[in-house]
Amino acid sequence: MMRPSPVQPDPLTDVSALLHAADDLSAEELDRLPYGMIQLDAGGRILQFNAVESRLAALPQAQQIGKLFFSEVAPCTKVQQFYGRFKEGVLHEQLDATFDFHFAFKQSPRDVTVRLFYSRRTRTVWVMVSERSNTRGGG
Predict the structure, then answer these.
(1) What are 130's strand-pairing partners?
(2) What is the dihedral of CA 53, 55, 61, 66, to 10 degrees?
(3) For residues 78 and 40, what is the distance between their CA atoms, to the nearest angstrom?
(4) Mean pLDDT of all residues in 102-114
């Protein structure tokens, strides 16, 4: 009797598979994803910043590369919930955390779901940002 071949996860719909494959995606492939994707080095410097995140954050994409994410781009993230998890993940070379967050940008504040994922292969952290569908009014 033949066994069915295992179904390979689709990195575009399977978020875990996407994060594990993110290091291998080209800039163009990152830009086509339905999520904001930011790759940070161990010091929090932006290595990649996709088009979706650029549009959602209202920040020019190319100008974010090389900037310090937690102090120059999104200082509102320099809190335990976000930056603390990032630092711990880099220190222990292990991170896969999902949480809701409010980006308090002056021009485009937004409520999002963030997933931080540490890549042991590249020793970087991927920040996946997706819009929360059940955002509440107020601040």
Answers:
(1) 113
(2) -40
(3) 14
(4) 85
